[in-house]
């Protein structure tokens, strides 16, 4: 069994874009509308052939517990609970507004990396100071869309598996 890395976060933060970058596919639908991914989507990371791992894209946790959004969030939580490493994806452009997911992740207490996506065109220091209150010792910044920071990210992930 390959180790499993789960991408979790609010809708629209770039989880599916990251999934596609990891898997070198376009299997995950990327959309500028929140909530395109409803289910879990598994693939093999193909960026480091020496350290293969499975990555699971999730549909996003929007804070609603009813209807489709609630079912989507439950899928995401289930994927995270079975993962060896969680990538908690947040959006540099939106700033820190992930408190619900944050408190859930704290309770879950699984190995988690904070991954700040969409850093392109943003002031890195400002973004880091905004997200400092989340209390992660380390913050990784990437631009999934521009494939920036993925090598460092991969090193951090592989080190933890
Ligand atoms: P998901 O809902 O978390 O899966 O987010 P998606 O991967 O579908 O991306 C949502 C939107 O953000 C899309 O319009 C993407 O093109 C855009 N996006 C994703 N990554 C980046 C990034 O690194 N920089 C910028 N500027 N936009 C991004
Ligand atoms: Mg998605």
Give short descriptive properties of this protein.
6 strands, 5 helices, Rossmann fold, 161 residues, six-stranded mixed beta sheet, 33% helix, binds magnesium ion, alpha/beta, binds guanosine-5'-diphosphate
Topology:
Layout: E1 4-9, H1 15-23, E2 41-44, E3 54-57, H2 67-81, E4 85-91, H3 99-108, E5 112-117, H4 124-131, E6 139-141, H5 150-160
Bound molecules: guanosine-5'-diphosphate and magnesium ion (MG).
Overall description:
GTPase that plays an essential role in the late steps of ribosome biogenesis. This is GTPase Der. Belongs to the TRAFAC class TrmE-Era-EngA-EngB-Septin-like GTPase superfamily. EngA (Der) GTPase family. With 161 residues, the chain is an alpha/beta fold. It has a single domain, classed as 3-Layer(aba) Sandwich (Rossmann fold), CATH 3.40.50. It is built from 5 helices and 6 strands. The protein has helices at residues 15-23, 67-81, 99-108, 124-131, 150-160; strands at residues 4-9, 41-44, 54-57, 85-91, 112-117, 139-141. The protein starts with a strand and ends with a helix. The mean pLDDT is 91. It binds guanosine-5'-diphosphate (GDP) and magnesium ion (MG).
